[in-house]
Backbone:
């Protein structure tokens, strides 16, 4: 969540998993590399809680690639992210394991 909020505050309102993974690597609190499958499972859980929304967007690079899944924080997600501690625990999104 903190990484998504950082992207949002820097003007990136929509992001894909690879961009979010890059933002996570920049955070000093992230001590391990997260597998993309783990990252997307976390994003799915955040979406179930109404904190992010996602949609499929066509590849606009002209390479004929597959659609990309894009994400953005919801109003509820932005409010929750602002309440996170300065150094997130748990999965790097600010969710402690005890919070589900």
Residues:
């Amino acid at each position: 969540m903190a990484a998504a909020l950082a992207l949002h505050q820097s003007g990136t309102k929509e992001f894909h998993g690879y961009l979010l993974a890059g933002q996570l690597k920049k955070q000093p609190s992230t001590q391990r590399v997260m597998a993309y499958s783990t990252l997307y499972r976390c994003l799915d859980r955040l979406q179930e809680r109404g904190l992010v929304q996602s949609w499929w967007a066509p590849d606009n690079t002209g390479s004929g690639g597959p659609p990309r899944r894009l994400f953005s924080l919801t109003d509820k997600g932005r409010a929750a992210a602002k309440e996170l501690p300065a150094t997130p625990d748990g999965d790097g999104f600010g969710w402690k394991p005890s919070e589900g």
User: Anything to note?
Assistant: The helical segments are 2-9, 17-26, 36-48, 75-82. Residues 88-100 have pLDDT under 50 and may be disordered.
